[in-house]
Amino acid sequence: MSKKLKWGVIGSGGIAGRRTIPEGITKARNAELSAVFDINQQANAEVAKEYGAEQAASINELLETDVDAIYVATPAHVHAEQVRACAEAGKHVLCEKPLGMTVAEAENMIELCRQRSVKLGCAFMMRFVAQHQKALRLIKEGRLGRPVYARAQLSCWYPPIEGAWRQDPATGGGGSLIDMGGHCIDLLEMFFGRIARVSCFINNSVHNYKSEDSATAMLFFENGALATVDTFFCIPDNSSKNVLELYGSKGSILADGTIGQGPAGRMAAFLEQDGGDYDAQQARSAAQGMAIEPEPVNTYQAEIEEFSRAITEDHEPAISGQVGLRSQKILTACYESAASRKVVEVD
């Protein structure tokens, strides 16, 4: 087996400490954790001790180590400057979403990484869910027919917390839409192709922090399909089933629980050769459909392994900076629509 790539982490607390380090970097077959940094020195020391990594006292100190790649898992408003520092140090970088706070920031990050010949990826790990990949294959094979409509839902209970960066657009870029809706929108583009225009509503339905706690978006795809995304910070966790629905002229693929941080969830396909003749009775079968149950994969491990392969094999990451930029453009259009109350074209 080839030598494992050495990974560093900027922002070792949060999602990195909960998921990406224990499930991704330390479990990946082609990666190993080498050094970590977090502004919370106590939390950083605990992560370093638990995984036998070097504890860096600053980002510069981390970048001076012999790490090959950096995982950036910090608040959104510092992504641009930290990716820039990684690129200038010649380190490949996998950045959490959103890639930047603005389209211009994301474009600058991509260009700098190109100039410095380093790989740039964006951490949309839900693309790696085994059921999502199986559904994508069925769609590409034409089994769903012509795409017609999709829905993606991701919600949670996120009450006001002192200093929570996701609850202030100055540090998070927005609330439930950019934080969770970004994942949903990215998945729907993976399934149905490019989005042409959007119409969006945001609101503070329950919580009174600065970012929105509620968002719904209507999406119109270039191929004529429609979709909705609903994402909330004000619905109890167990009350939102993280639904994914994909409809086409030959059937549907329906799931709950596949959108999220874990591999759990159920998915079934209800596929036909064609729509058949018109049935005035509109009869429905009680059939349960075809269960889609591929061998589960840990999305964080898959994400780290794929990005590591992109480095060692010198190819573009599957979820590149361009994917992050695309997400930024759609989210920007959504927020513009919410502010103007108009349909907005996606650049």
Please characterize this protein's 3D structure.
This protein is an alpha/beta fold and 347 residues long. The protein contains ten helices and 15 strands. It has helices spanning 14-25, 41-51, 59-63, 79-88, 103-115, 130-140, 169-172, 176-192, 299-312, 321-340, and strands at residues 5-10, 31-37, 54-55, 69-72, 92-95, 120-122, 147-153, 195-203, 214-221, 226-232, 243-248, 251-256, 266-271, 290-291, 344-345. The strands form two sheets. It has a nine-stranded mixed β-sheet with strand order 14-13-12-11-7-10-9-8-15. A six-stranded parallel β-sheet has the order 3-2-1-4-5-6, sandwiched between helices. Helix 5 runs antiparallel to helix 10 (321-340). The mean pLDDT is 95.
Overview features:
347 residues, alpha/beta, six-stranded parallel sheet, 10 helices, 15 strands
